[in-house]
Structures are given as structure tokens and as C-alpha cells.
Amino acid sequence: MNKLEVSDQKHYQSNYFDIEFLGHVAHIKLNRPEKRNAMNWDFWRDLPRIVGDIDTHARARCIVLSSTGPVFSAGLDLSLFGQDVFASSKTAKMNEKELQTPQNFMSFLSFLQDSISSLQKARIPVICAIQGGCIGGGVDLICSADIRLATNDAFFSIRETKIGMVADVGTFPRIVKLLPEGVVKELAFTGRNFSAQEAKEYGFVNRLYESHDALIEGALEIANEIASNSPAAVYGCKRVIDFSRDHTIDEGLEWINMWNASMLSQSELLEGFQSYKSKKEGNFAELPKLKDHFSKE
């Protein structure tokens, strides 16, 4: 899987993202630097489509999500708020508008939330590589990743508070499990910039890098190390860790028992032992392709 086959190109046509396959790693780049990678309709529509296709068809063992230019993302493109997502028909009665407006807004938010959640729902790990500013919706995005890496000059901001909003696309349900509650409340109440050094101190990001180039190199290095392991084992780790985070210890232990009882592969174990002993990369089975009801593959 060193490069896309011609027949695969249709899956990855996007005005917002660039997608590159490097061995077993899919590198997805936010590529709207002239707009500080603000998240327009192309972003919200294409992200789940691209991630879902990679995951469903087992095209990679790890995803690296990075960005271009000096800013990772300035958050939601304000043009989104000019869309007719809140209003009902102009000919509707007032009581119908009062009913339809909140329902339309809820549907709009669910669309945004589901787009971001595609990273968390993917079977394969997602590494976010963050440079410069990561603001508003950018924080929603990176909180759904499995691993966060950043440059020394990176900063994060729950900026929605500054414009009279409550962050509603995914930051709060996830970030409270990544940072101490008091820190989250301070960041949310103030909307201030949260430096890369603070983020590293609290474990929000795993590692810091001197430059954007070093960041991408480091992210791909970690991704390749992940990809050298059994995809089934890595998938199991992701699911078990996420489940254990949200449940009691006893529930987590019981779930791990059920997972291994149904998913543990003797052939993968044997291959893992042999590759570890020989210090050679194992010949592991890929994750199975899933049924995609929107594709003819």
C-alpha cells in the first residue's frame, strides 16, 4: 500500500484535505492555509467520508492528521453560520418556526459532532500533529484523536466562550477526560490560550517538537511503529482503553475478558512472539474490510 491505486482516487477527492499513503500509514493534511485552515463545509463533509473509507476498507494501520501553514486550525469557518441551518420555510407559521428552528439547529450540531467523532470511532489509531494555533473547532478535532503531538509554539484555545457560545461539537465531553477538571474550567471560562508547554505538563500532548518538519517526522515515526504491530491487537487496545476510561475497573476487566475470548488469535500471538524474538517486523493479518453500504466495493 505504498501508493493509491488509480481506482481508489475517487475516495479521496477533496477541496480541503490532501491524502497520502506511506506504507501502512495514511497521512491526512488540512490544506487550507490561506484561511488558517478554518473548517468549512468541505471539512465537515469530507472528514468522515475519508476516515470512514480508510477504516472500512482497511487501507491503513494508522492515521496521521496534520495541517499546513503556520496555524493548525482557526476553528469553524464563520461562513457556516450564514447557512440556512436554523431557519424553517419562509411561509411557515410562527409556531412552526419556533418548533423547527431548534430541531434544525440540533440536526446541524449532530452533523458536526458525527464528523469529529469519526476519528474516535475508527478502528485504527489517529495521531494529531499540531503546529501554531489550535482554536475552537480545532480543539474539538484533536480531542477525538488517540495521540496528540505539537510544536513548541503551538497553543490551544476554547475560543467559543469569547464569542458568547458554549463549545458544543465535542470538546467538553472529551477534554474532561484528558485534563484535570479545574484546568478545563479555567480554560473554558476564560477562553485564554493554553500553551504547548502547559499542555505537555498536563499530559494533553505526548511530545513537543522544535519545528513543523520535526513534528511531522516524529508523528510518522510513531505511526510506523504502531503499524508494525498486529492491527488486531492495536484495535483491541484502542477499544479496551476507551471502554475502561468510561467504566469502572470491574466493568473494564469483564469487557477485556469478553474481548480476548472472542478476538484473541493464536496465529497472531505466534507471529508476534516470533517477530519479537527475531527482531523482525511481523507478517500480521490486516483488519477485515467492513461492509460499506455506500460503496460498490
How would the blueprint of this fold be written?
Blueprint: E1 17-22, E2 25-30, H1 41-56, E3 62-67, H2 94-121, E4 126-130, E5 133-135, H3 137-143, E6 147-151, E7 155-157, H4 171-175, H5 181-190, E8 194-195, H6 196-201, E9 207-209, H7 212-227, H8 231-245, H9 249-263, H10 266-278
Parallel strand pairs: 2-3, 3-4, 4-6, 5-7, 6-9
Antiparallel strand pairs: 1-2, 7-8
Structure description:
The protein has 297 residues and is α/β, with parallel strands linked by helices. It folds into 2 domains: 6-227, Alpha-Beta Complex (2-enoyl-CoA Hydratase, Chain A, domain 1), CATH 3.90.226; 231-278, Lyase 2-enoyl-coa Hydratase, Chain  A, domain 2. 44% of the residues lie in helices and 13% in strands. The protein contains 10 helices and 9 strands. It has helices at residues 41-56, 94-121, 137-143, 171-175, 181-190, 196-201, 212-227, 231-245, 249-263, 266-278, and strands at 17-22, 25-30, 62-67, 126-130, 133-135, 147-151, 155-157, 194-195, 207-209. Strands 1-2-3-4-6-9 form a 6-stranded mixed sheet, sandwiched between helices. Helix 2 links the parallel strand 3 (62-67) and strand 4 (126-130). Helix 1 (41-56) crosses helix 2 and helix 8 packs antiparallel against helix 9. The longest helix is centred in the middle third of the chain and has 28 residues, at 94-121. It starts with 16 loop residues before the first strand and ends in a 19-residue tail after the last helix. 35% of the residues are buried.
